[in-house]
Prior knowledge:
Layout: H1 9-56, E1 124-126, E2 134-135, E3 138-147, H2 154-165, E4 178-182, E5 190-195, H3 197-205, E6 217-219, E7 222-226, H4 227-232, H5 241-256
Parallel strand pairs: 3-4, 3-5, 5-7
Antiparallel strand pairs: 1-3, 2-4, 6-7
Amino acid sequence: MSENNPALRPAAHAASRRRSRSHARRRRRHTHRNGVLGLSAVAAFLVCTGIAMHTSTPSGAGVPHTAVDRPTPAVTPVHTTSHPAAPSPSAHPPSPSASSSAPPSVSSSASSSTWFPERGNGDFTRAAGGTKVFGTGKLLRYAVDVEGGLGQDPGKFARQVDTVLDDTKRGWAAGGAWSFQRVASGPVDFTVHLASPGTTDTLCAKYGLDTGGWVNCSGGDDVVINVKRWLLLTQYYRGEPGLYHALAVNHEVGHRLGHNHVGCPGPGKPAPVMMQQIKGLHGCVINGWPYDGHGLLITGPAAS
């Protein structure tokens, strides 16, 4: 009814505009308030999502840690002073050098050429064949036997013995008193045995001789060469196997011929073969032959 009254139209229009402006202001405030709330919600959502993503990542996943990611802290070396352990009550001071009469040890790393058992099988094999007579004196016939289980060839050992006893310039045949011939059968004046340490002890014990598993002996018609000495030599003959073999055979055969032990004739002179060189040279120099090559016997004062 008031809209049809011309007198009231201007007032009505003014009131309508005021309502419109008031409504617009309320709408802008609502929109602003909703926008702020929306941004806050988005921010809160992102923060929560990030936290959730971080806490849900399994340990060790993602980019592996390297020295750059987590540098290892420097370590300062700690210097300690070591102290020698207190000596054991059961320990003993080092013993002085062993005397020349002490048996040398056998290396566990010995090559096959120096291997030997402590005891062979006790059965001896006689070397076949023989030699002609060497020398011009009284004939002595000898045989050569090698114990089984030593890994030594009887023929080779016999030839080595022959080389020593058949030397008419430096050997026992050089003086004109004796001559020698090896035989494989028939009667003999003595037998040269190559035996293990254990068997050497057994053979020598028959004559009241104690060889201790490491030296040679001669008794009755038996000349016994210990394979341990034959292969390992002695400390004075290292690197001189031929010369030591001559000494071993000549010394023990010398006993069979009736010679006794003698001492060193003087400093720098050749050691007599009848000297117990294994117990020390006492100023003499090594020598394996009874004669000097000029028909002179190398000897010394009687040993006490």
